[in-house]
TrEMBL record, chain A:
It comes from the Eukaryota. CDD domains: PH_PLEKHJ1. It comes from Echeneis naucrates (Live sharksucker). This is Pleckstrin homology domain-containing family J member 1. InterPro entries: Boi1/Boi2-like, PH-like_dom_sf, PH_domain.
Amino acid sequence: MRFNEKELVFLSRQPSEMAAELGMRGPKKGDVVKKRLVKLVVNFLFYFRTDEEEPIGALLLEQCRVEREDSQSFSVAFLDEAERKYLFECDSEEQCGEWIDSIIKASYEFMRKNLIFYRTEIHRLTGKDPLEQYGISDETRFQVSNGLQLTPRDAASL
Amino acid sequence: MLSTRARLIFTYQEVIGTQTHTHRGNRRAETHFRKVLFGAACDVEMKIDEKVVAFFESCNSPVDKEGYLYKKGEIKTSYQKRWFVLKGNLLFYKDRQADRDPLGVIVLEGCTVQLCESEEQFAFSLVWSEPGLRTYKFAAEDQACQESWIKALLSANHNYLALLVMDMEKKYKEALAAFSADQTNPFNMPNFNTTEPGYSAAYYRQTSTPSLFPVSAVGAGPGPMLQTPAISPKTASKRSPKLWPKRSANVMPVNTPAPPVGEWAGICIEEFSKLHEDFGKEVKELISNWSKRKRAGEIVQQENLIDFG
């Protein structure tokens, strides 16, 4: 698949609050933990060899599961767990928690869901649709019925 | 004088431009080839986990916009019809709507949308203004289509949504506060704690405030799901309304100084309403520019299709 690589590299250079040297292990069998500068920019996780300016790789943080593996490490899994699970080792429990939190919240889909949640709640509390003032209340991407489920108690029922 | 390597790259790009990419094997070989050649000459060898990206395109997450557009080739100057799928800040494209695998994806960060000079009608472009970065040129079938795509692409970036969510969060807080002011009982923030089903207790940091959004970090499903809690002020636990989470998205906090002016062609706007206003102006300008040109071409000016209220 082609992608706009240079522009993505440009993106990797943008300011980010979440950038740190972590131990990182790739998803393939036989991959080992390596020290990498990991940087979160929008919904991408870039990783660099220490002291290099160009990232080695980029991970799109959509449709992923972020889990704590132990007190100081977390994983990001895509598709089937076996196929694609990246492991990250942090320096502390607190840092680990911050990364988990940040990665989850960076997802575009997560933000969209929250938007819809707020919109629904504001409408329920005030009787007004808060997106109307911006003239974007008709946009399909902010509709509740847009393939999203708002009340799954049990994820297995999806 | 182009080096041999550079010449090879250009030749190769021209060759792959003429193929129809129906066989997956070809594409894989092309990608590998491209990485080797392109990377070697341009010193850019960043990998992207393609399976992850391809899955995102094919999964049932919301599609923000899709349709046929003409796209100008990278080396060849001809426009080719492609099926585009916009999901969030990613613009995928395929030969045909029915194709399973996308030909490519454009990450819509750091770019602006502009009308462009073109022999093609209803043309517009995605522009990265940094030196060395490219411009993608497109042409739509008609004006409505053109405007609709311009509007969608302008607001596709992550920051736009982040600011909008922040704005909504603020309005939600205000609505809750106003709501509680009407109650005789003191309002207590609903308890979105880890006892909700589907939560991983390990997800929450021990020392900090639980997230406002009841998020299931662990799921058997395709991704994190938002659970709408049954909010009832009467049953809420005693938790101070002051313990609001910091931010819901990866944006610059409002109180910090603006980021250093530099490479980022993006926006430093902190209020969504300002951003929205700017977008409105931008789109109006684009439309009025188009209209001026069309007037010269004796085409009846249509009504402004986008009303920003």
